[in-house]
Amino acid sequence: MIEETAKVIRVDDNWVWVRAIAQSACGSCQAQKGCGHSLLAKVGQRQIDIQLPRQDYELSVNDDVIIGVPEQAVLRSSLLMYGVPLLLMLVVAGLASVMSLAEGAVILLAFLALISGFFYVSRWSNTARIEEWHPRIIRKALNQETLIPICEIKE
Hints:
Helices cover 39% and strands 24% of the residues. By secondary structure, it is of the alpha+beta class. It has one domain. It has a 5-stranded antiparallel beta sheet with strand order 3-2-1-4-5. β1 and β2 form a beta hairpin. α2 packs antiparallel against α3. The protein is elongated. It starts with a strand and ends in a 15-residue tail after the last strand.
């Protein structure tokens, strides 16, 4: 499960709206202090608002929650989004080459097949309701202050 922390921005009877900040992988790199890409990633962070079905958690505005998406959903959607258009482009380009079309026509048909593949996947993903691919609330995030042990020093 791929997990991310988000903040609840709105709650109603059936839905919870959360705001997550898209983060770069630069936070885990050892060379982040000397890297210009890390600085650009910090400047370019953007907020993403997500509508999620309400579950059995008591949530209120400004609560932190952990949302998650199964790894298989990310892998399958990536393969679908990139694999189908590329495969369609290669098949059309191969067929156009076998038919001895001019090089310009082969390139144009391959490009049109690629665009058609993206359009098809986009339309299909809007109509397909695959519930296990959608993000969901896993749990409420723990308040970080409760994780710090407090010791009393007795004299």
